[in-house]
């Protein structure tokens, strides 16, 4: 394997502003066996690599940047995209198809139909933090594999549900497994060089679109002949393919570094370098062993407290507005324009609650077009996120959505209504993806999965609440409903601007502790609570 000298650059160096103090014990280790101790003034001996770090030491961040984007990342992109399409997009899209079918076939009242969707979000909300904690404690690959197998098992069982109560419980358990899907983004981001990270995570949205389109096409073929049970079973089978491909996935080298597995970290980095045909950095890999990982209290340290609270509101607003717009779109299109909503509602109230309509070919076509409307938002976000930064991108997305919502007050016609709804959905979906870029970047490796998991959980809270606004409140006042969505996104735009940290052009942080940060700035100092060692032996 070829090796090269690698000098750290300012892009991946750590500054005092990026780190905070902590009470955790961290061990700094290396992987070279031949060391030349250097005597300090107080008689303590440290390796030569620590005294002169620029040429002889490197971190995982430096290795990922030196190896660059190549064949390995392309494979990882496809596998991560498969998880996103099969475990997330398809299982979420099936809610739009399953609910009206069971409404007619089992003669369910409206509240039971709505509960079929809500129970999935309840499962996702309750499990997101748990999957994040598992991924920080036991590895990203471990958490992802368990969540996928969980979803596969209960997804197939859903097809055999004999009565409503069974399918309600089983779909809730499917939602519990789906809550672990965002951890695929955590694993994915930790293998991406800085310049490619934002673009690659944003392009995962393409796989979301592929998954939803595939689910609609599958429904067109399966529903008329085999029925909804076979649709549930066949929709879960792509997860089996991902479960098999999981054996190819390596564990995150950043996680291995933090858990003290230097041999695995080096082996993973060498594997990436070999597949990409790139040289490995020459020198000593710095290992920061931290046993205390994935703790909720670390999200509320002075350095991250405001970031966590603001991100929770941003993710809540994203899901609240996105799923709200999906529900409102159906209402607006069926009414013809905004001003006709109230009169149409009076007609609907007179109908029996058991009245049902099966999905038609035209309905499936509308579902496809609605999905395709998100592509412009992803393209715009892709173009601006590395130009104006993550914070401003999220703020702009929220502001455009809020502005389009207010324009609906004008009682516009069907064509203008369609344009405004598509623009709003394009930008809110792009803002959602920008949040997926920002969140793994802002948290350190020790709490990255937990941070993303808790944010995802808050998003599900927004998804649970939004039907009461987009459907229940809409019956009373369409204008009040629009004010709620517009106001929420306006506040989220302000919250995005007030985020303390901009992650554009910044490497992923390995640890949040001051001792580790000082070590990366000047590795020659001997800090209390930090143990330096070579291949596990303490100096």
Walkthrough of the structure:
- By secondary structure, the protein is mainly α.
- It has 21 helices and 10 strands.
- A 4-stranded mixed β-sheet has the order 8-2-9-10, with no helix packed on it.
- A hairpin with a 2-residue loop joins strand 9 (530-534) and strand 10 (537-538).
- The longest helix is centred in the N-terminal third of the chain and has 35 residues, at 71-105.
- It comes from Jacana jacana (Wattled jacana).
- Keywords: Cytoplasmic vesicle, Membrane, Synapse, Transmembrane, Transmembrane helix, Transport.
* Count of structural domains: 2
DSSP helical segment count: 21
Proportion in β-strands = 5-15%
Termini separation (Å)?
30 Å
| Relevant CATH superfamily of the largest domain | MFS general substrate transporter like domains
**Major sheet summary line:** 4 strands, mixed
Q: Which fold name is given in CATH as the topology of the largest domain?
A: Growth Hormone, Chain: A
CATH architecture of the largest domain: Up-down Bundle
Residue runs with pLDDT of under 50 for 5 or more positions: 1-54, 348-354, 513-539
Region (Disordered): 510-539
Membrane topology: Multi-pass membrane protein
Keywords: Cytoplasmic vesicle, Membrane, Synapse, Transmembrane, Transmembrane helix, Transport
Protein name: Synaptic vesicle 2-related protein
């Amino acid at each position: 394997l070829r090796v090269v000298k690698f000098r750290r650059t300012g892009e991946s160096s750590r500054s005092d502003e990026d780190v905070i103090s902590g009470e955790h014990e961290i061990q700094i280790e290396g992987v070279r066996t031949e060391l030349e101790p250097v005597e300090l003034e107080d008689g303590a001996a440290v390796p030569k690599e620590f005294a002169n770090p620029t040429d002889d030491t490197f971190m995982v961040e430096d290795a990922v940047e030196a190896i660059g984007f190549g064949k390995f990342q392309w494979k990882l992109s496809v596998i991560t995209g498969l998880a996103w399409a099969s475990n997330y997009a398809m299982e979420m899209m099936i809610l739009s198809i399953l609910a009206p079918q069971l409404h007619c076939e089992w003669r369910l009242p409206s509240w039971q139909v709505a509960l079929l969707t809500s129970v999935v979000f309840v499962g996702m909300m309750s499990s997101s933090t748990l999957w994040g904690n598992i991924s920080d404690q036991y590895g990203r690959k471990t958490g992802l594999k368990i969540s996928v197998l969980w979803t596969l098992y209960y997804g197939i069982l859903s097809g055999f549900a004999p009565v409503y109560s069974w399918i309600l419980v089983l779909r809730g358990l499917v939602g519990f497994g789906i809550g672990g899907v965002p951890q695929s983004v955590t694993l994915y981001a930790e293998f991406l060089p800085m310049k490619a990270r934002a673009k690659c995570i944003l392009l995962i949205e393409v796989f979301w679109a592929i998954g939803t389109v595939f689910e609609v096409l599958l429904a067109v073929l399966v529903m008329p002949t085999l029925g909804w049970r076979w649709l549930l079973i066949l929709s879960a089978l792509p997860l089996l393919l991902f479960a098999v491909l999981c054996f190819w996935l390596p564990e995150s080298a950043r996680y291995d570094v933090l858990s003290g597995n230097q041999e695995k970290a080096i082996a993973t980095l060498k594997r990436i370098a070999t597949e990409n045909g790139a040289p490995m950095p020459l020198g000593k890999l710095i290992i920061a062993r931290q046993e205390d990982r994935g703790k909720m209290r670390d999200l509320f340290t002075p350095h991250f407290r405001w970031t966590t609270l603001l991100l929770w509101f941003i993710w809540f607003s994203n899901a609240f507005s996105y799923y709200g717009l999906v529900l409102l779109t159906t209402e607006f299109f069926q009414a013809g324009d905004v001003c006709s909503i109230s009169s149409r509602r009076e007609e609907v109230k007179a109908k029996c609650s058991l009245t049902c309509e099966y999905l038609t070919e035209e309905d499936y076509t509308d579902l496809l077009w609605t999905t395709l409307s998100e592509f412009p938002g992803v393209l715009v976000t892709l173009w601006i996120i590395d130009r104006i930064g993550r914070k401003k991108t999220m703020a702009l997305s929220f502001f455009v959505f809020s502005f389009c919502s207010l324009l609906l007050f004008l009682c516009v016609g069907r064509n203008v209504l369609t344009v405004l709804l598509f623009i709003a959905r394009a930008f809110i979906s792009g803002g959602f993806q920008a949040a997926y870029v920002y969140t793994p970047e802002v948290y350190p490796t020790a709490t990255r999965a937990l941070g993303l998991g808790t944010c995802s959980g808050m998003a599900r809270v927004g998804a649970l609440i939004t039907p009461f606004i987009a459907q229940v409140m809409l019956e009373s006042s369409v204008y009040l409903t629009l004010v709620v969505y517009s106001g929420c996104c306006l506040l989220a735009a302000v919250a995005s601007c007030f985020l303390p940290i901009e992650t554009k052009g910044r490497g992923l942080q390995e640890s949040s502790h001051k001792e580790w940060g000082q070590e990366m700035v000047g590795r020659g100092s001997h800090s209390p609570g930090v143990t330096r060692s070579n291949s596990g032996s303490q100096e």
